[in-house]
Request: fold
Amino acid sequence: MSSSKPVAIITGASGNLGRAVAHKLLADGFEIVRIGSSPPKSASGHQAYDESLFVQTDATNQTSMVKAVEDILSHHGRVDALVHTVGGFTMGKMVHETLENDFETMIEVNVRSLLATSHAVVPAMIAKGRGSVVFVSSSTAARGLAGMGIYVAAKSAVARLTEAMSDELRHKGINVNCIMPATMATPQNRAAMGDAVMVPLEEVASVCAFLVSDGARAIHGASIPVRGLT
Reply:
């Protein structure tokens, strides 16, 4: 079955940003496919969202992602956009105190997931000659910060891989960009940080939606700060 609407895959779909992006893309007329490591715990109250396709798989596993995308293509017949929101954060250790296991965890969730997901999704876009990819880096990725070394390194890698992929794919009709959000206003961040200035999830989702729209076809390899207005 081939969808008449553009189809967007959203990874990390059970997370705060993944849900916000899904709602925004639905409102913009996309068919969405949500990929997550665990199914959503409760209904969203948005009928189209609740009835959209959900695929449970590990976005850090290349084989699992290839199988998931094969299933999506057999169901929808196309993939027009990918918004990859899988990621993780940790801080507290100085670089010289960092253990291999700490580093590997950050690389696994932030970088390996990007590589596995790209490996599964991009060939279908190349075959079609068109597509849009959005990754999520961080506003902190521009420079090293005390206690955040491995996180900054991982998110900086996301930005550099975005640039490399853009250079490789722009002439195949695919634009690849990433966003660099400041601290997002998730329930968890609000609980931990109180009234600190944060960027609303809806605003971050709107930037993602713009980057997969036709209006962003000329934007390639950009790392876009998303700080909000406050």
In short: Helices lie at 16-27, 47-51, 62-76, 100-128, 149-169, 187-193, 201-211. The chain has seven helices and seven strands. The radius of gyration is 17 Å.
